[in-house]
Amino acid sequence: MYYLFIHFLYIANGMSVRDFMKILEVKRYSDNTINSYASIVKLARHFFKKPLDQINETELHRYFYFMVHTKKVSYSYQKQIALALKLYYKEMFNKNINLEFLFPARKPQKLPVILSKKEVMLLIQNANNAKHKCMIALTYSAGLRIGELLALKIRDIDSDRMVIHIRNAKGNKDRIVPLAEKIVGKLRSYYKEFLPKEYLFEGQKGGKYSASSLNKLLKLAAKRAKISKNITTHSLRHSYATHLLEKGTDIRVIQKLLGHNSIKTTMIYTHVTEPTLLNITSPFDDL
């Protein structure tokens, strides 16, 4: 059935990015991956001004040089470009191209931006309305990725069992995380005021709330709260994990709560909350 579907796409009116997205949907890639890969392909097609099946590997190398040295893309995005284009050529043209050697040789070890508990409260207090306050509070209280928060449906909040059911998260995995007691009342008040129909947080015209709007409202709340740190919604997730670790929560429990496949990913938080380092007194204080 899958190969019949692919054949249909080939004989349709040319190969479009939408066709690529349909293939990824059939192969059960996550919505976030599909949208990210589609965006990367669109940018590449715009750069070359011609179909990608007419591009040779030398031209692709030139494109990578442009993205790294002119656009200054991050390590992770550089790797994502290579993975997306490699998959696009494979699925759309049945062509294997070697782009792995264009992965950065070493990932920079940058520590995540962490908010204090006081700063988290200031963010929530300085949000515009009950919806914005709940979005920030829920993201932090459950350590959610932005896509996980925006994909939540009303039925995913189980106040009887006090859990949140996160569906089709990164890697197409479901997981259960605790629902904070203090947020239940806030969610009920928000629900009565805004009456969402399907998704827990919806845009003005219904449907999912947009990621760009969420990041924008977070920046505005940070500005009003006079928080100068360069934060994103992911900073709330980082802060959740760090605060759990500071409370003595086992690192493997945090791994499960965050939905990390590898403990190595979770270990980054040990670098920002190492007790033996944080409790060191500076010799300046002895002067």
UniProtKB/TrEMBL annotation:
<dbReference type="Pfam" id="PF00589">
    <property type="entry name" value="Phage_integrase"/>
</dbReference>
<dbReference type="InterPro" id="IPR044068">
    <property type="entry name" value="CB"/>
</dbReference>
<dbReference type="InterPro" id="IPR002104">
    <property type="entry name" value="Integrase_catalytic"/>
</dbReference>
<dbReference type="InterPro" id="IPR004107">
    <property type="entry name" value="Integrase_SAM-like_N"/>
</dbReference>
<comment type="similarity">
    <text>Belongs to the 'phage' integrase family.</text>
</comment>
<dbReference type="Pfam" id="PF13495">
    <property type="entry name" value="Phage_int_SAM_4"/>
</dbReference>
<feature type="domain" description="Tyr recombinase">
    <location>
        <begin position="110"/>
        <end position="282"/>
    </location>
</feature>
<feature type="domain" description="Core-binding (CB)">
    <location>
        <begin position="15"/>
        <end position="93"/>
    </location>
</feature>
<dbReference type="InterPro" id="IPR010998">
    <property type="entry name" value="Integrase_recombinase_N"/>
</dbReference>
<keyword id="KW-0238">DNA-binding</keyword>
<protein>
    <submittedName>
        <fullName>Site-specific integrase</fullName>
    </submittedName>
</protein>
<dbReference type="InterPro" id="IPR050090">
    <property type="entry name" value="Tyrosine_recombinase_XerCD"/>
</dbReference>
<dbReference type="InterPro" id="IPR011010">
    <property type="entry name" value="DNA_brk_join_enz"/>
</dbReference>
<keyword id="KW-0229">DNA integration</keyword>
<dbReference type="InterPro" id="IPR013762">
    <property type="entry name" value="Integrase-like_cat_sf"/>
</dbReference>
<keyword id="KW-0233">DNA recombination</keyword>
